[in-house]
Amino acid sequence: EAAGDNSEALDAQAGSVDEENGRQLGEIELQCGICTKWFTADTFGIDTTSCLPFMTNYSFHCNVCHHSGNTYFLRKQANLKEMCLSALANLTWQSRTQDEHPKTMFSKDKDIIPFIDKYWECMTTRQRPGKMTWPNNIVKTMCKERDVFLVKEHPDPGSKDPEEDYPKFGLLDQDLANIGPAYDNQKQNNAVSTSGSLNGKFFNQVVWGIAAGGSGKGRGAKRKQQDGGTTGTAKKTRSDPLFSAQRLPPHGYPLEHPFNKDGYRYILAEPDPHAPDPEKLELDCWAGKPIPGDLYRACLYERVLLALHDRAPQLKISDDRLTVIGEKGYSMVRASHGVRKGAWYFEISMDEMPPDTAARLGWSQPLGNLQAPLGYDKFSYSWRSKKGTKFHQSIGKHYSSGYGQGDILGFYISLPEDTETAKSLPDTYKDKALIKFKSYLYFEEKDFVDKAEKSLKQAPGSQIIFFKNGASQGIAFKDIFEGVYFPAISLYKGCTVSINFGPYFKYPPRDITYRPMSDMGWGAVVEHTLADVLYHVETEVDGRRSPPWEP
């Protein structure tokens, strides 16, 4: 759908230019094609009755840059990709400003198509088609443009989401400030601009997921565009080993993924840029052969969130990965990051707790059973809502009064610095098998639960303390088993809780020293990077655990 002659032009005398160049997301804003500054449309008295926020199908020059001294505004015909981009940006913004738990994915039939149908005349100068074929074309467009859009075709197994809500679509890059017109594509035919004014470096904002960067890539590093590429049209090809990593959703994990279950755990992998022989990363050359694990590394996200894969499938996780809703019997979800030494803290708010529901909250090692209440085995410690009972190895003991809807709970753990676990680096997983699932690679690790249970040993000086609305309930557990501990939530039936990893808490403890769990985001990046480097420089390195640090 090329832009045609069906355009509108407006010349309006304006008063002054917005010197601060501030952004007002959610308002109708225009970007000057020469100075690249942003202005709200009402700054120049432009008629916005046929405009929408986050539109990209226009050309605009402010009164300072335009040769006539007036503003120039030309509204163009939008193609389906631009219409979908604008629709999803507006839906995302509305959800952020109106919903308690903002969404990032939207239903084709319930959200996207009704929005485009309602605002068709505002989104494009093209006539509304007589035949209702455009909804199918919209789906094809968003499924094709994977460098811009996320696609989720079916609900997670065990999810209560109705099948008719799918497919759902979202934006790969959730930074709405990156949306802007592709002026670099207009350089050759824009008669009112000078050739020296429009250089490509100003206009990389429209290329989502490539030039804009920064959506959950491992180690927190932004991918840079390849030399010689053009920002307006550059796309990674499927043979590029970085292709999959660049299509990660906003919160750093694929929407469709394998779950940790049946004795196996799955760790998302990405190409290791420091691996020897990086040219071997081309996936095509490994067709029918096992892919060497040392060419890849664990893919990390620099924010601590609830894990999408390390949970019971029936639990429903919110789009921001900070709220969980229970379903049927007890089942558990762990956080994405764990701790092995030091003192750490996080909070949980009890949002909704209908009658006959319950929660057990606390800390769990990676091998804690996901299809059981927290505190069921040797790998986890919990605090129950009913009667305030504490649990470990399925043994309940009186600890405090219970808690319920509206309460804010605090969870503190202190782990000694001199244990073997504390001195060790994280697993590299490079000796594990790589499997492919829905275009992504994962390390597959077998759980040896019996062996791990027999090797457990206490960590003298360790302790766990729970807090209720800022008041310490006393030491719940001490001298707990040594290991890596993750914040964990287990729910019974349909209660809803939200987790706050910090750094700001509603009731920060005042009588103890701690670090917020949010600090572990970048901390894990540093630890895993060091573990990967040691793997490559050491002649013999245990793939699961690098040697202890030497003092």
UniProtKB/TrEMBL annotation:
Q: Name one GO cellular component term.
A: MLL1 complex
Q: Which GO terms describe its molecular function?
A: methyltransferase activity; transcription cis-regulatory region binding; zinc ion binding
Whether DNA-binding counts among this entry's keywords is yes
Q: Which residues cross the membrane?
A: none
Kindly list any coiled-coil regions of this protein.
Answer: none
- List the InterPro entries: ASH2, ASH2-like_PHD, ASH2L-like_WH, B30.2/SPRY, B30.2/SPRY_sf, ConA-like_dom_sf, SPRY_dom
Q: Does the keyword Phosphoprotein apply?
A: yes
What the entry lists under Gene3D superfamilies is as follows: 2.60.120.920, 3.90.980.20
Q: Which residues form the B30.2/SPRY domain?
A: 283-506
Could you tell me which residues belong to the region Disordered? 1-20, 214-254
* Role description: Transcriptional regulator. Component or associated component of some histone methyltransferase complexes which regulates transcription through recruitment of those complexes to gene promoters. Component of the Set1/Ash2 histone methyltransferase (HMT) complex, a complex that specifically methylates 'Lys-4' of histone H3, but not if the neighboring 'Lys-9' residue is already methylated. As part of the MLL1/MLL complex it is involved in methylation and dimethylation at 'Lys-4' of histone H3. May play a role in hematopoiesis.
Q: What is this protein called?
A: Set1/Ash2 histone methyltransferase complex subunit ASH2
Q: What is the lineage of its organism?
A: Eukaryota, Metazoa, Chordata, Craniata, Vertebrata
**Gene label:** Ash2l
